[in-house]
Structure formats: C-alpha cells, structure tokens
Design goal:
mainly alpha
Length: 44
C-alpha cells in the first residue's frame, strides 16, 4: 500500500481486532464517532 496513513490505520485495526476485547473497543469507538457525525450532520 502506498498511502502510509492508510497503511497505519489498517495495521492498527488489524492489531485491535485480533482479540475480542480489542474488537469491542474498536466497535465502541466507531459507534461514538458515527453518533457524533450524525449529530453534527443534522445540525448544519
């Protein structure tokens, strides 16, 4: 992969998702971000 930022993101995701606790933490954070985006998206 040429884009170092994306490569780092995929590597981090791979490390987080390798354990049940890591996957839960990732999904929890993703939900937080998506909820915040939805809130901001409806206000403007």
């Amino acid at each position: 992969m040429k884009d170092e930022y994306l490569l780092g993101a995929f590597t981090s995701w791979e490390e987080l998702s390798s354990t049940p606790d890591g996957l839960l933490a990732y999904r929890t954070r993703l939900k937080q971000v998506m909820d915040e985006e939805e809130i901001w998206g409806t206000r403007f």
